[in-house]
């Protein structure tokens, strides 16, 4: 078989997927194609992948290329984890940081892309995710031409918008994959519940899912959460900026919506939790979450440091084959443990029938009542050789979740697609006119003018005929 990882210069994630493939005997003897336009990162990923698999003693073949068509040709599965950005920049976060700074200059705290129910600015870029959408379409077109039976596993954000676009305008096989649902296990651990005795479901849209079914030993377990809130919520402190599952924001949303938001969902609440850093600290704890002017830049620098270290490590491995990755960096390079990502279970299930329950982003098809059938939802499914089988959502999501959270979030997705497909700058203007931070139409035009005048946005500006 052939697996293609696009954006393999995201070395840490690539090593997780490669490790999962190597630890799955069904896939031994397969080829993994690493694709990235950034030569140094691609080379580092290639060197470390070969060394990792060599230490595992597994037969896998590797190829590397900067060309989509070469990487995709003949693939069975294509994993898109790419964050497209201009070669002249150190990374994609440079342009995000610049655009955020310009947005704040014009009165848009955390930038124009921080929108209610979509507060993480790196989910979309200049409101329509142009570069991510363009790459996804390029990948889809290459799949149709060079690997028409392949599955695309859309992993890079914005998963919701990209998966929706591809199901609307292409006929390739695509699912969106995210690990945010793992927040349920933080809930179970916090409440001291044995996971094997918990029956659970989550449903919603990507980064907007709620715990609709929560049973412990056959009984409704929400009363256990209520008790924890009464006794321990006031003493809760986050362990790090990402530790938000049991935060006051998450529990406040639970009280309003009637079901607990899971994973990144509480990061994508309303302005109530996000007006400024002081507000964020009140709701997310002492760090103020990860989506603020202090912690986000720190995170970007951590990613840069980690990438530099990976490249250095690859250079060291190239010079000395005596280096043992399994001993040097066991949290990434390990012998037995799977990464926890769902990709390997989907690929193994759909190919060999190893049936697995997964949380995937797929067309609704009547699964969540009141949501259009073609809208991409994130729901529990079972995967086997016959395909994807939906679970019945029971109990249904509350009416408040649908009318106050899901439908407004779906509307924002539709705005993104309309802006991208219409190529009309007026769509971007109308999105910003509706932003509560906007005080005048002149403010809208000025912020968009300055952002689109940046050198790295020349292509976007041309695309919008601006």
Number of strands: 13
Stretches where pLDDT is under 50 for at least 5 consecutive residues are: none
How many individual helices?
Answer: 17
Known CATH architecture of the domain at 1-83 and 127-178 and 303-354: Alpha-Beta Complex
Q: What would the principal axes of the Cα set say about the shape?
A: globular
| Estimated structural class | alpha/beta
Find the CATH superfamily of the domain at 1-83 and 127-178 and 303-354: AglA-like glucosidase
Q: Please state how the strands of the largest beta sheet are arranged side by side.
A: 3-2-1-4-5-6-11-12-13
Domain Glycosyl hydrolase family 4 C-terminal: 202-438
Cofactor: NAD(+); Mn(2+)
Keywords: Carbohydrate metabolism, Cobalt, Glycosidase, Hydrolase, Iron, Manganese, Metal-binding, NAD, Nickel
Protein name: Alpha-glucosidase/alpha-galactosidase
